[in-house]
Amino acid sequence: MNPSFHLYMSAWLFACGIAIGIVSRNPVKYGFNRSYLSFITVPWKLAVFVPAFMFVTFAGQFSFDDTWDVVNGAGMSVLTYVTAPWAVGMLFKASQRAASKQQLTVAIIAMMFSSSWFYDGWLVIRDGYYPSTWLPNLLLSPVLYLAAGLLWNLEIGEDGKASFSFFRKNWPETSSHRLSKALLIKTAPFIAIAAFILLFSVRWQFLDWSLIDLLPETVKVRLFEAF
Q1: How far apart are CA 28 and CA 34, in angstroms?
Q2: Which domain holds residue 116?
Q3: Which one of 77, 91, 134, 216 is CB 3.0 to 4.6 Å from 53, fit for a cystine?
């Protein structure tokens, strides 16, 4: 493996060790409590997660991306579901100076590990070398992570309007299990972002690529750049 990748991997492993050390001192401050478990297991959130998990876990076998396997799909899905609502909320709290530096550090590392470093690490274990796709994944997957974190922080307030739960001072206490038209409308952009990236960032085996030859050369170039 290239020495620069050895250095990069050592750096993120060290960062993960720091995060584990911080969390171990007071797990409750970092989402390891019943309140957060209740927060992420609201029925509508589970209803969104289950089909997303199934797709991300198994759809890779129908693509030409051999780095997208069951382990990466399942692992990144679960990590995102478990950590993204807390991490994204904590990023907002930090922007309002309502979170400690330690909480901000853990939130950033949780995002990076869930969306990028887990992917890299598993492929190093599986293949024995650092994946050439590490940079495209690093650029795309955090966008998915942030979209998921925002999605699972949506809720219906007492006024019947949809808003982000991390606006509340007592976040991440569960405020509402309600599902409404307003909430569904608010979820649409985040689901669309995730669907667009997942569907159009890889080439799919079930598409008849021979038909591409019928298109103008400029169109073909743009298509292959997109896929």
Answers
A1: 9
A2: 3-226
A3: 77
